[in-house]
Design brief:
The protein has 316 residues and is an alpha+beta fold. It has 11 helices and 12 strands. α3 runs antiparallel to α4 (46-57). It binds ligand MTE and molybdenum atom.
Length: 316
Amino acid sequence: MLIRNKDSWELSENEVTSESDYKSRREFIKAAGIVSVGATAGLLNPSLAMATLKTATGPYSGEDIRDELNDYNAITNYNNFYEFGINKDDPAKYSHTLVAKPWSVTVDGHCENPGTYGIEDLIDFNKLEERIYRMRCVEAWSMVIPWNGVPLSEVINKLKPTNRAKYVYFETLVDEKQMPGQRRNVIKWPYREGLRMDEAMHPLAMIAVGIYGEELLNQNGAPLRLVVPWKYGFKGVKSIVKISFVEDEPNTSWMRLAPHEYGFYANVNPEVSHPRWSQAKERRIGDFSRRRTLMFNGYGEQVAHLYSGMDLRKNF
Ligand SMILES: Nc1nc2c(c(=O)[nH]1)N[C@H]1C(S)=C(S)[C@@H](COP(=O)(O)O)O[C@H]1N2
Ligand SMILES: [Mo]
């Protein structure tokens, strides 16, 4: 097993897959005709599982998402995490100063259970799921990553938002000693993100704590980060220390920096260009040529209804 720090994880072999036996597990999954994402979403909604299966096996013609997994080395060495520098290899080089354990998260705003929680109180480490998701960065590269985590809705349900909560807002840690990139004001710290409550409760939105059955490395946002597969990667706020339930649309980091370039929704949309470059194509890390980008990153069947009636050119 490659899982470290058994004390906080205490997982058996079949609950989380190590990288080395990942391949055989995948063969098993394939033989059973189930993909992880379909299987897990299916527990919540059978029709969603069907849609997920379809999407997972063929949105790019002939693609089987399981065969496109990026390797662990790429996933952990090609990162965006400005708290450690702006180059793709900075987070792997400089994030060792982050102390991800112990970790607590402060919860406030419109909910019945505000307070400060240890990560183990928010995440059920015995019920981690494995989900293979595409990640599409606004810079037009992409990866396929096998995440380990729980649906964001499970965390939110523990906190019991009231009906005044219309959005959920997240912040990353601020600490120049642990995050030396924060000495420069590339963005206004803390890194801030948010989702509309129905987006946050969607079964595809997840809080990840691992990749390839290993605890998240610091560069990937240890010990917990958001993953929203139908949105650009920047929505996936890392190393979360604060969750707030709010009434008004949060002003997120990238919107503050460049409101004409980055909107609140940030849905992957090949038809809406970034003002300085097209979003129609992407390069999967490891590939030589580019491929067509899919609406909602290929998860349209599951999430398009969240935006019905909205003008996605205005609400980008
Ligand atoms: N706190 C914080 N979270 C962040 C970022 C960041 O700079 N700081 N970068 C975002 C961007 S732009 C992307 S594409 C993803 C990259 O996640 P990865 O490095 O794990 O692949 O993290 C997102 N989360
Ligand atoms: Mo990104």
